[in-house]
Write a structure and sequence with these properties.
Keywords: Glycosidase, Hydrolase. This is 6-phospho-beta-glucosidase. There is one protein chain. The protein is of the alpha/beta class and 474 residues long. The protein has one domain: Alpha-Beta Barrel (TIM Barrel). It has 15 helices and 14 strands. The mean pLDDT is 96. Bound molecules: 6-O-phosphono-beta-D-galactopyranose. The site of 6-O-phosphono-beta-D-galactopyranose has 14 residues, from loops.
């Protein structure tokens, strides 16, 4: 009983949200660099508004972020102190290929991650690497239109082959695309898409999705060829959709909303387009740009495990009159009157994690990995910089409890758990510093002031104990 003996406890981050050093050692510009804080952000990340320049008039906290690029040793030492067994991080594509379409990689970028992985191993921490976490080189967006263009497969192949070869023996857990279903909600982040006027957006999105799905299968193939020890996962922004009522139209709406997410994982895990998606796209006159060999590639190179993020459940309604939607979340959801919400309106539902895990496990029967979960909150440090974040401990403890129930009571096979933003970092949704998730407070305010000093919060000591007892002491 209990969690696996070798359960992978840890934390998760993404390059652009903590590294900073946006132009250090030859790094190129990426889409994630050009989404400033403020009103336009939502319009830009959804691909509706062009903002392809990086200027000084706008505010970009991610430029320096928490300067992890220059302080990673200190940060990893703190992760080691908490007892992390794994650390999920992402590669900034533009450190390796600054423009994206070069033949030869940038050695300084490759060396940075090599040193970082070696640093992790010093503490017995197994890296879990997201190859693309919302990032796409700006050059590929300007020249090729991002993932709408099939040429992206060549660039991604070059990137992944370079990584698997260089980091053989240092990394064995890989994720191809962070929250691949986010393409549909934030296409600029998910696929480097900026819409042209008058084009069929859905067609563009599903074309880009097809390219990413094929690219993911190709990467899985290469990973296994380079080193059979490599394990490759897909990554889903998960969260069960509940029907707003027992009315069949609501139940159908909830099923459809779930399928919109599962579509991606159905392809990555089962190896083919599901019937419901084929029918829907056919009905709408959208052609999937299959090329020779795609079907075989998808079928033969499915993922080894299913990873996902979970912050919240959602509610779907089939009634067009129901329009009381929650704010602040990238997924539209009807408000759930039985749940509390975070300061950003994300509804808090620990039991929803158990339900979601069961749903995913029933569907795919592959090992699961929770690679993001956490509470974004405004922390108020005392005069010594110490944060008593009991609210965060409560959130995490209740979710870990539900996670354990899914394993112990329902038999879900779970590889590990990495809580999101284990050290304070820049928020992907708002681009700001004030929405914090970490066990470690970083002295950096929303305007870029602060010493960048790191101070463990109360949750740091709590999580250390959770890891020590393999989740028994919550
Ligand atoms: C996920 C992303 C992360 C992360 C997290 C929290 O969707 O994979 O990059 O940021 O959400 O979101 P936010 O930063 O908007 O609070």
């Amino acid at each position: 009983m209990g969690l696996r003996k070798d359960f992978l406890w840890g934390g998760a981050t993404a390059a652009n949200q903590l590294e900073g050093g946006y132009d250090q050692d030859g790094r190129g510009l990426a889409n994630v660099d050009v989404a400033p804080v403020g009103e336009d952000r939502r319009a830009i990340i959804s691909g509706e508004k062009k903002h392809l320049d990086f200027d000084d008039e706008h505010f970009y906290p991610a430029k320096e972020a928490i300067d992890h690029y220059n302080r990673y040793k200190e940060d990893i030492a703190l992760f080691g102190e908490m007892g992390f067994k794994t650390y999920r991080l992402s590669i900034a594509w533009t450190r390796i290929f600054p423009k994206g379409d070069e033949k030869e990689p940038n050695e300084a970028g490759l060396k940075f991650y090599e040193d970082l992985f070696k640093e992790c191993h010093k503490y017995g921490i197994e890296p879990l690497v997201t190859i693309t976490h919302f990032d796409c080189p700006m050059h590929l967006i300007k020249e090729y239109g991002g993932w709408r263009n099939r040429k992206m497969l060549d660039f991604y192949e070059n990137l992944t082959r370079t990584l698997f070869t260089r980091y053989k023996g240092l990394v064995k857990y890989w994720l191809t695309f962070n929250e691949i279903n986010i393409i549909l909600h934030a296409p600029f982040m998910g696929a480097g898409i900026v819409f042209e006027e008058g084009e069929n957006k859905k067609e563009v999105l599903y074309r880009a999705a097809h390219h990413e799905l094929v690219a993911s299968a190709m990467a899985t193939k290469i990973a296994h060829e380079v080193d059979p020890k490599n394990q490759v996962g897909c990554m889903l922004a998960a969260g069960k959709n509940y029907p707003n009522s027992p009315r069949p139209i609501d139940v159908l709406a909830a099923q459809q909303a779930d399928r919109q997410n599962y579509f991606f994982i159905d392809v990555q895990s089962r190896g083919e387009y599901p019937a419901y998606a084929l029918k829907e796209l056919e009905r709408e006159g959208i052609e999937i740009p299959f090329e020779e060999g795609d079907r075989e590639l998808l079928k033969e190179h499915t993922v080894d495990f299913i990873s996902f993020s979970y912050y919240s459940s959602r509610v779907a309604s089939g009634d067009p009159e129901v329009n009381e939607k929650t704010e602040g979340n990238i997924f539209a959801s009807v408000k759930n009157p039985y749940l509390e919400a975070s300061e950003w309106g994300w509804q808090i539902d620990p039991l929803g994690l158990r339900i979601t895990m069961n749903d995913i496990y029933d569907r795919y029967q592959k090992p699961l990995f929770i690679v993001e979960n956490g509470l974004g909150a405004i922390d108020k440090p005392d005069e010594n910089g110490y944060v008593e974040d009991d609210y965060r401990i409560d959130y995490l403890a209740s979710h870990i409890k539900a996670m354990k129930e899914a394993v112990e009571l329902d038999g879900v096979d779970l590889m590990g758990y990495t809580s999101w933003g284990c050290i304070d970092l820049v928020s992907a949704g708002t681009g700001e510093m004030k929405k914090r998730y970490g066990f470690i407070y970083v002295d950096r305010d929303n305007k870029g002031n602060g010493t960048l000093e790191r101070t463990p919060k109360k949750s740091f000591h709590w999580y250390k104990k959770v890891i020590e007892t393999n989740g028994e002491d919550l």
